[in-house]
Write a structure and sequence with these properties.
Blueprint (H helix, E strand, L loop, with lengths): L3 H5 L8 E2 L2 E2 L1 E2 L10 H12 L11 H21 L7 E4 L2 H16 L5 E5 L8 H10 L2 E5 L9 H6 L5 E7 L11 H10 L4 E4 L3 H4 L4 H4 L3 E5 L10 E5 L1 H4 L12 E4 L4 E3 L13 H17 L1 H19 L5 E4 L8 E6 L5 H10 L2 E2 L1 E3 L4 H7 L4 E5 L6 H18 L1
Parallel strand pairs: 3-15, 5-6, 5-7, 7-8, 8-9
Antiparallel strand pairs: 1-2, 4-10, 9-10, 11-12, 13-14, 14-17, 16-17
Helix pairs in contact: 2-11, 3-11, 4-5, 12-15
EC number: 2.8.1.7
Keywords: Pyridoxal phosphate, Transferase
Family: Belongs to the class-V pyridoxal-phosphate-dependent aminotransferase family. Csd subfamily.
């Protein structure tokens, strides 16, 4: 039995008030709140156990290294990766995708080579490929979504041509909540000999992920959306792809030997982790993922489906609310505007006065916004600690917005 009251009790921030109202935190798509177990791990990591990791022979270094490297296997279990050696730590999805762009794509792409993207991509899965477009003459091929916001996997597969070197696609849209059939895309791309990178920043928070079942070559996640600390993240990279990659950054830890004239690399995944890492943040991410696994990823997904369905049902009564994306299997993410010309920032401000935190703007998805024909939206994104009562509070606040701006 999923006890949302018990879950909420583990998040200290949820007991506070905003503008004299109980906090309703619906900005989870940007960053999630942290349970006490993660906060405790961060405090302990700095107050009682802190030291640099790897190669230190003293007690504190051994403790930090054990906890840090232990996170690698937690991520492996969380994604059902074959080996923890296929897990590379980083500061989040943005760094992970850039690592693939610089370390894998750049050395093997020539002018005219293509990368296939969906129009729903976050800027983190667009801008690194624009770097290759500007610097190496790589072409970006875009695949649009349909009127409901769904992405046809076959349309992505059909976009793959003889010059395509990579498909990079989100698993769940951070704007529309659309869940993409990345398994079908990977199967079709594999038949054409093209690797697939999946941005799992949103999906991994809301549903179980199995990279072996999906069949992707790269899968990126970010810790701060997964109820862990900022500055933490990881990317799954197939061993075969790791063997094709050059290091993204140079420094300590990622080397085997350095002389005046030569340098040799450490074995993966260390080859791709230069310098002193975000030790405590990474440990905190591991604690967060362990906590989610204990709670049950299927239980989390089922709870969020209930929230999604409640929101959809309540929104049906608001004929002045313009929802973006009507995909039937979407996650509990809703982007909207209100008829009457109210700007998303104004709506967000009114909601904040009622203690409700939402995101307003383009959500780092400008190409999608252009495709949708809108400049900005409000986004309410639900998480594992939100309740149906909070859905109702959102609707009540939106009704007030309509009265004010109609």
């Amino acid at each position: 039995m999923y006890d949302v009251a018990d879950v909420r009790a583990q998040f200290p921030i949820l007991s506070r008030e905003i503008n004299g109202k109980p906090l309703v935190y619906l900005d989870n798509g940007a960053s999630a709140q942290k349970p006490q177990v993660v906060l405790d791990a961060i405090t302990r990591g700095y107050a009682e156990e802190y030291s640099n990791v790897h190669r230190g022979l003293h007690t504190l270094s051994s403790i930090s290294t054990e906890r840090y490297e232990g996170t690698r296997d937690v991520v492996r279990r969380f994604l059902n990766a074959p080996s923890q050696d296929e897990i590379v730590f980083n500061t989040g999805t943005t760094e992970g995708i850039n690592m693939i762009a610089y370390g894998w794509a750049m050395p093997r792409m020539e002018p005219g080579d293509e990368i296939v993207l969906s129009i729903m991509e976050h800027h983190a899965n667009i801008v690194p490929w624009h770097f290759l477009r500007e610097r190496q003459g790589v072409k970006i091929k875009w695949v649009d979504v349909d009127a409901k916001g769904d992405l046809d996997p076959q349309a992505v597969i059909d976009a793959i041509g003889p010059k395509t070197k990579l498909v990079a696609v989100t698993h769940m849209s951070n704007v529309l909540g659309t869940v993409v059939d990345v398994k079908a895309i990977c199967e079709g791309a594999r038949e054409k000999g093209v690797p697939v990178l999946v941005d799992g920043s949103q999906a991994a928070v809301h549903m179980p992920v199995d990279v072996q079942e999906i069949g992707c070559d790269f899968y990126a996640i970010t810790g701060h959306k997964l109820y862990g600390p900022s500055g933490s993240g990881a990317i799954f990279v197939k061993k075969a792809r790791m063997a094709e990659m050059r290091p993204f950054m140079g420094g300590g830890d990622m080397i085997d030997q350095v002389t005046r004239d030569t340098v040799t690399w450490n074995a993966p995944p260390m080859k791709f982790e230069a310098g002193t890492p975000s030790i405590v943040s990474t440990i905190g991410m591991g604690v967060a993922l362990d906590w989610m696994l204990e709670l049950g990823l299927d239980n989390i997904a089922a709870h969020e489906r209930r929230l999604r369905d409640r929101a959809i049902e309540r929104f049906k009564g608001l004929n002045w609310l313009n929802l973006q994306g009507q995909s039937e299997g979407k996650g509990a993410i809703f982007s909207f505007t209100i008829e009457g010309g109210a700007h998303a920032h104004d709506i967000s401000t009114v909601l904040d006065k009622k203690g409700i935190a939402v995101r307003a703007g383009t959500h780092c998805a400008m190409p999608l916004m252009e495709h949708l024909g809108t400049g900005a939206t409000c986004r309410a994104s639900f998480g594992l600690y939100n309740t149906e009562a909070e859905v109702d509070r959102l609707v009540e606040a939106l009704e007030l917005c309509h009265e004010l701006f109609a």
